[in-house]
Specification:
By secondary structure, this protein is an all-alpha fold. It is built from eleven helices and no strands. The chain starts with a helix and ends with a helix.
Length: about 180
Amino acid sequence: QLVRWLRRFEEPELTERLVEGSPWRRMGPPELLAELALHLGSSGLYGMASDCVEHALASAPNNANLHYLRGLFRMFGGDTSGSVEALQHALRLRPGMANAHLSLAMQDAAGSAGTYIADIRRALANVRNDEETGYLASALHHPLHALGEYEEAWQVLERGHAARRRITPYSRAEQDDLF
């Protein structure tokens, strides 16, 4: 809980000291380590976040979310090939994992853009909610655009934005109050 508060107040140095001095390796379930890794990563502490993920993967090697996080932190660390490998592993474990599709699509080279289109379309056909639709539509937009399929790319992006607007509707009055 303290890590959440430190993250909220943008205190990465305190977060780092707290976690370094804690027995986080004995936290128990891999899900707790994944949550800790997310908080560390969102604080810019990618090395520590990666350590949490690797430790959790030792006890849960078939956890798709942990492979996704591995791919995400490797992407932030500049290890594109390691990131792609980890994200592909996550998708083998959970083919409809929307955030893994998007992270993969954002960094995949234009030369292999068409490789994942069928997989993303399959996942998009089986979405369970607007959040997944938003992720998958954005994921599909990237390779379609890279292949020059601009009309379809924009249509799918519009679908994704419509889903996101349903999640967080825009209110001009609320925006005016905010500013």
